[in-house]
């Protein structure tokens, strides 16, 4: 069991940030996952996803993860799919911070 309350709050905050970013047409670059959307079409293509520094660390893992995130298998991550991505990343961050769990 992890610190569920905290991660839920963090996810909520990130989701809001993402929504704001998307709504503003991603004004500020370099932060959050909206910055992955290079061509600003509101989706993250596999190329965009793989170009992220995080994905570059382990491309095999990133590729597998992209596949699992792309629920409808259309080759890009839409907003709902990105939400899952956020959750996954946050979970990983939490695991790194709390190696005991
Ligand atoms: Ca895109
Ligand atoms: Ca998709």
What does this structure look like?
Helices cover 59% and strands 4% of the residues. The chain has a two-stranded antiparallel ribbon. The radius of gyration is 14 Å and the shape is globular. It has one domain (4-97): Recoverin, domain 1 (Orthogonal Bundle). The chain has helices at residues 4-23, 46-50, 53-57, 59-69, 79-97; strands at 44-45, 76-77. It has 101 residues and is mainly alpha-helical. α1 packs across α5 (79-97). Residues 25-30 have low confidence and may be disordered. Bound molecules: calcium ion (2 copies). Residues 70, 72, 74, 76-78, 81 line the site of one calcium ion (CA).
Q: Tell me how many strands there are.
A: 2
Provide the structure class.
mainly alpha
In which order are the strands of the major sheet placed?
1-2
Please report which band the strand proportion falls in: under 5%, 5-15%, 15-25%, 25-35%, 35-45% or over 45%: under 5%
Q: What's the N-to-C terminus distance?
A: 7 Å
The overall pLDDT, averaged over residues, is 79
Low confidence ranges: 25-30
